[in-house]
Amino acid sequence: MDTSPAPLHHYETARGDRVSLREKIGLGFGKAVVDGTHGTLHVLVNPIYNMTLGLNPALISTIVFIQRVWDAMLDPFFGQFSDNFRSRWGRRRPLLFLGAFPMAILYVWLWWFPRDAGAGYLFWHLLSVSLFFYAGHSLYSMPLTGLIVEATDDYHERTRIAGITLAFGFAMQVGSQWVFPLTQSKCFSDSISGVRWVSIGCGVLFLVSALIPVVLCRERLYANLASKQPRISFVESWRAACRNKPFMALLWMRSVFSFGANVVGILGAYMYTYYVFGGSIKAAAVGYAVVGSSYHVAAIVTSLAVFPQIECRLGKRCTLQIAAGVLVAGCISKIFLYQPGWTWTPLVAVACNGISNAGVSLMCIAMLGDIADYDEWQSGLRREGLFSSLLSWFDKAGNSLGFLLSGFILTWIGFDARLGAQSDHTLRLMKLIYVAAPATGAVITILLARRYDLNQNLVYDIKAEIARRRAAKGAL
Fold first, then answer.
1. How far apart are CA 328 and CA 333, in angstroms?
2. Rounded to whole angstroms, how far apart are CA atoms 384 and 91?
3. Cα distance from N-terminal residue to C-terminal residue, the chain
């Protein structure tokens, strides 16, 4: 098959390749739970464990690093397990059902520590419970991502599905921005009571939402194709993945972008609380919820209405590069928009962050389906779970390393939560790092994207060849 580049022309999605609204909604609710559980943990961990309880931020970033390394280690195992799992109900949906309960229950347990717990107890409670939580999270998220990737064979429909599922995830995270202000409500006697009862409400919501894709979704390729293929060892699959050039390019793009964004991941809350509001946690809580919500609202709108349109005209690689470029522009704007007492101007920079992350995440998910087809064209096997899990591993590796460094960066620049207002030196360094790190990661991502060569024409050629092979085997 000719893999040389050719001018792109528009392909219409066939009726048989379109995914029903019912199934898109089911996949969306699943994605909302995956992002919502992780997102609310991310939003709450520093305001509760550091700003409220005084746990050292370097200890928290160490825990978050261990969490994410652990989570990243589990993902390939559960992704491969999902590919090889066989049951009368399929290979994905039974695992979604099994993962939903521990994920929701352990999320609640994260915030039910003794009221008078010391730093040592808080450290071990957060670390140990979160490790069990992320085991349940991975058991749920890896089969779900496999289900999303295999939902259609069409190049453009994959982008639409990715946009809808991401929009659900971002919508849940809009709500997550209000979780901490809710814990500060006068309805509760103190912050600890607030976080306990709010976490119960979140846990119930997560559990109900997690079960929706089990009911609404189907496994399109299971009966005629996936159930008949041999079980594959992880080593064999890993070797195949390493030989897949488009996939390796995608892994590097995702990990570099994640590292750049997350090395300053927790600095957004600190910049707003300490740079804009001079260290007043309660005064900053509502404003930061609004500013943080702009990230997810902008991401929802562009996931649904902007990036799918750009992708149809320019292709996935160019769309990803444009999204990374938006992050560079947003970082530059931080220089001017973050000023003491300027309550709402950071909203623009944070919205740029959301737009950029939406575009990069959308294209990465949409590219996975094309890569799975490329792999089937080469090997005859369907390994969506493996590719999803390895992409997640690289994403979380960059994510976790960035988060590890972020806590130590706070310590290095002289941040001390006990002081309230921070020194001018600390604030200047905080702002410099907040601008430079993600912009650098975005620029490198744009350059790495040039190595990804699965364009629209090639993907449709591969799709046609795979359809011929399946028809010859009677697998359609």
1. 9
2. 12
3. 22
Domains of the chain, with CATH numbers? 22-214+233-473 (1.20.1250.20)
350 C-beta neighbours (distance < 10 Å), count: 25
Residues near 275 by Cβ (< 8 Å), separated by ≥ 6? 338, 340, 427, 430, 431
- Judge whether 468 and 299 are in contact, CB under 8 Å: no
* 181-207 burial: b if 16+ Cβ within 10 Å, else e: bbbbeeebeebbebbbbbbeebbebbb
Q: What is the pTM of this model?
A: 0.73
Residues contacting residue 326 through CB under 8 Å, at least 6 positions apart:
352, 355, 356, 359
Please give the biggest Cα pair distance in the chain: 72
Tell me the two tokens of residue 246: 């488009």
pLDDT tens-digit profile, the chain (476 residues):
444 444 555 667 777 778 888 999 999 999 999 989 988 888 888 888 887 888 887 788 788 878 877 887 888 888 888 878 887 787 889 999 999 999 999 999 999 988 888 888 999 999 999 999 999 999 999 899 888 888 887 888 888 888 889 889 888 877 777 788 788 777 887 888 888 898 999 999 999 999 999 999 888 765 455 555 566 666 777 777 788 889 999 989 988 998 888 777 677 777 778 777 776 766 676 777 777 778 878 988 998 889 999 998 899 999 999 999 999 999 999 899 888 888 888 889 889 988 998 999 899 988 988 998 888 888 877 777 778 888 877 777 777 677 677 777 877 877 776 777 777 888 888 888 888 989 999 999 999 999 998 888 888 888 888 888 877 776 55
